[in-house]
Amino acid sequence: MSTIESYIAKIELQLRVQTGLKALLISLSLVVFGLIFTSSISTILVLAVLGFFVAGYYLGLFISQRQQAIQILHERFPDLEFSLELLDKPSKNVANLPVEMSSVEISIIPPAYTGLPKTSQSELSIKTIIRSDVEWFVSMENAEGASLELINSNGESLPFSKSEEKFILQDKVIGSGIYALQARRDAKVVYESDYFPLEAIDDFSPVIQPSEKELYKYQFTKDPQVIQVKAKVSEDFKIKEVYWWLHWLEVLARM
Fold first, then answer.
1. Is the separation of the CB atoms in 136 and 168 below 8 Å?
2. Bridge partners, residue 108, by sequence
3. What is the pLDDT along the chain (255 residues), one digit of tens a residue?
4. Exposure winner among 47, 75, 113, 229, fewest CB in 10 A?
5. Contact 198/223 with Cβ under 8 angstroms?
6. Which of 35, 36, 52 shows the shortest CA–CA distance to 44?
7. d(CA 127, CA 179)
8. Phi first, then psi: what are they for 171, rounded to 5°?
9. Contacts of 22 (CB under 8 A, 6+ apart)
């Protein structure tokens, strides 16, 4: 038994003893009163027992004195701030513990054509190539019965699903902005993070730089119908359609 519980039990016993003494005094008073009218020992005994139990019943002798004991402790020790009622709850934890984010993991998968690897981070600020797939794994404390959403600056939201103890959300990056995480329980906001940036890096079009410095070139009918065109092609990532681009350069050169 904890120290506080032992104090409560001791005060409860004192209250029960006091109540029993009151019932006993009432019973003795009835005995004295009964002796005025009768000298029968059996009658006096019945009157004493009956008086004790009736008085004890109305004085609360046969019910728990725990609440009164707790009230006395609250009066004696104001610093308890009327918190001892929590001892009688099925769970000893406080019903109003704050909802908090305990951990977050973000997986970022760039588009396959970039050849960039999948990355993971614990920071909510995100910077990645546009059209990347992003997946959030969020763990919350004291979030029983709560739902989690991703909200942007326009108030639009995306709901997380829940798997075991984690909240999960998958989305594709289509533009830059800011976002926050917001948890609700019974339509009431119980957690809201700061806003964090989500920066989408544009994938620029390939750059084609012809080797020839001349902007125009004359072509006569007697000249060869094939023109050699050289160009330097650069792109942020892998280049797979160089032949297609050079083909159109050749077509344009023939015009």
1. yes
2. 119, 134
3. 446 677 778 888 888 888 889 989 998 888 888 888 888 888 888 888 888 888 888 888 888 878 887 777 667 665 554 545 555 555 444 467 899 999 999 999 999 988 899 999 999 999 999 999 999 999 999 999 999 999 988 888 999 999 888 999 999 999 999 999 999 999 899 999 999 999 999 876 666 666 666 656 666 777 776 767 676 666 556 555 555 444 544 444 444
4. 75
5. no
6. 35
7. 13
8. -155, 165
9. 55, 59
